Amino acid sequence: MNFKWFRNKLTFVIIPEANGSVVRVNLSRGLIGGALLLAVLLIGASGIIYFRHLHSTASAYLRTSELNGRTARLEQDLKGKNAAIEQLQNELHSLSKQAEQVHSRMEEMKRLEQELKKLAPGSAPASGGSGGTPAVSAAARSGAAGGMGGPAFHGFGLPPHIGAERPDRAARAGPEGQERRDRAASK
Question: Where is the composition biased (Basic and acidic residues) (predicted)?
Fold first, then answer.
């Protein structure tokens, strides 16, 4: 390589307007080449820094938009689940109201049943055992009429086999069947 080319000087002449004097500047070619190389390096470094900043800004924007989308989806899921919970709570509330109504109706039915048992002639008081079934008196078990007299009643104009217990079923039913027959006979 020829180093003389770098040693040669370049002269720059600056010519001002009419009243000014001419200025000459002598610079070596190496200095000018170094200045140009430095300028290229500075422009390249600033370009790299700018593109890295642009890349980080773009990736931050993408992450932010992704997080916003995920947040929106999670909020929608949360709204849907809150709506489902509210619906279930409403259903639970309505079911509890229905349960209270059924319970009050059952209490009313029990009260009416007690009143009916009090009003029915010849009914025996309820015993404390066997699920609240009325106690059957010894007279009713033996086949005696329940205080009214007359034949056993089988229904309002129904054929005698309806409401009457069949003997083959009575044998299979055991003691419970006997009690049912006795109760049917006492009515």
Answer: 163-187
